[in-house]
Amino acid sequence: MTHSLPATYFDGRSPQPQPVLLRLQEGVLWIEGEQATRQVPTHEITWPERQRHGLRVAQLNSGGSVQCEDATAWDAWAKAAGRFESPVVQAQQSWRGALLACVLLIVLAAAGTLWGVPLAARAAVALVPSSAEATLGDAVYSSIKSEWLKPSKLPAARQQALRESFTQALARAATPDEPAPLITLHFHAAPGMGPNALALPGGTIVLTDELVALAQGRDDMLIGVLAHEAGHVQARHGLRMVVQATLIGAVTSLAWGDFSTLVAAAPAVLGQLAYSRDFEREADAHALRVLRANRLDGSAMVEFFDRLEAWQRSKGGTDAPAMLSSHPLSDERRAFFAGKTAISNP
Questions:
Q1: Residue 52 has what pLDDT?
Q2: 317: which of 2, 301, 312, 330 fits an S-S bond (Cβ 3.0–4.6 Å)?
């Protein structure tokens, strides 16, 4: 038996509603009323999705629509006539389906953040010419130079000796598959930054007088620190950080919209800290390779961490690493340079 459903028909030409009866039979919707009778194949109709409340409206692709205010009656009529909901609609109406969708979304977002964004950034960076990266590095260097850096007080001869020692150390560690990166080493006093070294996009490295003083003539420490920064240059970490921050920012903005700038920025900041820790581990591995190629071991870096943390405590800080929270914990890094653990490249 074919069920009929009272509804309202709009022919698409006049705003005048027409009371009709609807029947579904053999793939055809019959619209029957005193003023109009119409037959429309079901595949030429945009059917409404079931919702908890609200008017049911079916759009006729050739023009017009039929409406029913009794949503419960519409759903029962459609089901009795053999129109079943798609799996997507069924999932939307189920709290279990909604919960499963949320879980899958979280898993996909986490996987994209942990693996998808770094892979996409690595692919994008491969397309960026070195000249563009150098331009970015020059801009960053000019910015921090004007705000944070002062002229170095190290004698010119000492600066030149360190440059030559560093260049030679990188050359000894170079291989045909991994040639030594091209580095421009700048020395600066930085009272506000303290003992530090910075690797900028394009091959610029900044070494502070305060870090040279902390080493107290231990050039093996300085070679290890600079080799770490050269690892960042070699892997183009600076540019990859910029690309990853851009990608994460775009994704979080898409997800959160304009709801809150702070909420949208938080995932990006936290995500970048995690990426930075991976980059630091990769740079540490490069530093150890350079040290070993120069017949040095990692004990110099272990002692360097001890001195760095002692310096920070003397300034009223905690025993956390002075080289920012994005770095792996110093105990982890000590164990690596002491040969007790391995840090795999990301």
A1: 66
A2: 312
